[in-house]
Amino acid sequence: MSDSGYVLNHYAFDPVVFLRDHWQQRPLLIRQAMIDFQDPLQPEELAGLAMESGVDSRLVVHHDQRWDVAHGPFEHFDALPEDGWSLLVQAVNEHVPDAQALLRAFRFLPDWRIDDLMVSYSTAHGGVGPHVDQYDVFIIQGQGQRRWQIGEKQDLATRLPHPDLKQTEPFTPIIDEILEPGDMIYIPAGFPHAGDTLAPAMNYSIGFRAPSQAELLSASADYALEHDTWQTRFRDQVSQLLDAERSQLTDAEPWYLPEAVVNDFQQMLQQALTDKTQIHRIVAELLSKNPRPPLPEWPESPVTESRLPYLISQQPLLFKAVGVRMLTTHLEGQLYAVVQGHWYSLDEDAEALFVVLNEMTDCIESMHLNEYLQSSRARQLLCGLLNEGLFIFSAEAGD
Fold first, then answer.
1. Does 147 lie in the same domain as 11?
2. Rg (Cα) of the chain, in Å, rounded?
3. 281 domain-assigned
4. Which terminus of the chain has a smaller tally of CB atoms within 10 A, N or C?
5. What is the 3-state secondary structure (H, E, C) of the chain?
6. Residue among 215, 185, 258 nearest 31 (CA)
7. Looking at the 3D structure of the chain, how many domains does it have?
8. How far is 348 from 381, CA to CA, in rounded Å?
């Protein structure tokens, strides 16, 4: 399947209308969102992925009124019942190039908003039960049929039929439809939904990354500790201490924490967060890092600009490590590439090289790099990524 094979049907789906009327607002069913949709992988290939170490997968089985959940990697699937189960594999886009190509149909939203492509195979009556996701998701129907029910956003009691399976109580659906191959539903965060398989089915779920305040604060703390910044420490205000000493009220007891001191701590945090440049760096680094970090493959010796022509001539293929995240951003007037948290300043040549590297789904012929290595910044970008083990020269496929 070529990249051009995964294109949203513009007769059925208008991105402008969708963003205006539905994105993060209301669920939507899109019939034949992709015409003549072809599955980027088969159930057997999905099962093979679930048997590999480092791949996040799980089996959800609903049998004899009981829910069970097992996590991969799996050695076999021999003991499964005939129906009532689903195999779910996360980040399939990081392992299957055609699955990566599927995500490109959703570039009416920024790349850095996309989390991953989760693929599931379900037998008849298979599913994970009614639940709520805290992120927006598109679900494309591949082979087979599934009935999808989506309810209004509401407070629903949580149920735990298994320690690893969070469900909600039943809800009244506002959408209740059977999806055929090529159909798609959009479900905003917070809307309860449930899928029930009618005929053995493949489903493709495009989930979107939405960092919480806690994640942003955690990333900020990590950045501050790494760069030895935000080191201003708390100082007492003498006037507050004198007031407490003179006061005879109960709130002057030595163990009492007054509201005024809490306000001082809050002001310390607010002052730290006023540094726009640091916040820009923190956000860019956070969004450029895959939550499932790629496994780097470092070169035997550091790659220098002068060695690049030799390596390109001797190593005909350039591979991209699985799961590399990349973005560009302007900071203080300079365009940068941020790759897995590493910063590289770009000029016109380096930016053109970035585009080539970003668009890679697996590998390219090394000789194609030569036309993009005219400037020192372009060469520095490639050297940096090679030395971080995020891109790898190889003599042959699978070497």
1. yes
2. 26
3. no
4. C
5. CCHHHCCCCCCCCCHHHHHHHCCCCCCEEECCCCCCCCCCCCHHHHHHHHCCCCCCEEEEEEECCEEEEEECCCCCCCCCCCCCEEEEECCHHHCCHHHHHHHHHHCCCCHHHEEEEEEEEECCCCCCCCECCCCCEEEEECCCEEEEEEECCCCCCEEEEECCEEEECCCCEEEEEEECCCCEEEECCCCCEEEEEEECEEEEEEEECCCCHHHHHHHHHHHHHHHCCCCCCCCCCHHHHHHHHHCCCHHHCCCCCCHHHHHHHHHHHHHHCCCHHHHHHHHHHHHHCCCCCCCCCCCCCCCCHHHHHHHHHHCCEEEECCCCCEEEEEECCEEEEEECCEEEECCHHHHHHHHHHHHCCCEEEHHHHHHHCCCHHHHHHHHHHHHCCCEEEECCCCC
6. 185
7. 3
8. 12
Nearest to 332, CA basis, from 278, 273, 274, 270: 278
User: What CATH code is carried by the domain that includes residue 135?
Assistant: 2.60.120.650
Look at residue 4 and tell me whether its pLDDT is greater than 50: no
Query: Could you list the residue range(s) of the whole structural domain that residue 46 is in?
Result: 3-208
Q: If you average pLDDT over every residue of the chain, what do you get?
A: 92
pLDDT digits (tens, 9 = 90+) for 135-153: 999 999 999 999 999 999 9
Q: Is the peptide bond before 73 cis (omega within 30 degrees of 0)?
A: yes
In this predicted model, which residue has the larger pLDDT, 289 or 361?
Answer: 289
Return d(Cα 383, Cα 299) in angstroms, integer: 10
| Distance in angstroms between the alpha carbons of the first and the last residue of the chain | 24
pLDDT over 90 at 166, yes or no: yes
pLDDT at site 260? 85
Structure tokens at 287: 């969004």
Residue 250 pLDDT grade (very low, low, confident, very high; cuts 50, 70, 90) = very low
| Both tokens assigned to 282 | 């923190």
What pLDDT score was predicted for residue 259?
86
Place of tokens 């996590």: 71
Inter-helix orientation angle 376-387/348-359, to 10°: 40
**Any domain includes 285:** no
Average pLDDT over residues 174-192: 98
Does any domain span residue 174?
yes
**Phi, psi angle pair for 334, to nearest 5°:** -115, 135
* 391 close to 319: Cβ distance less than 8 angstroms: yes
- What six digits make up the tokens of 46? 């999905």
Contact 210, 109 (CB under 8 A): no
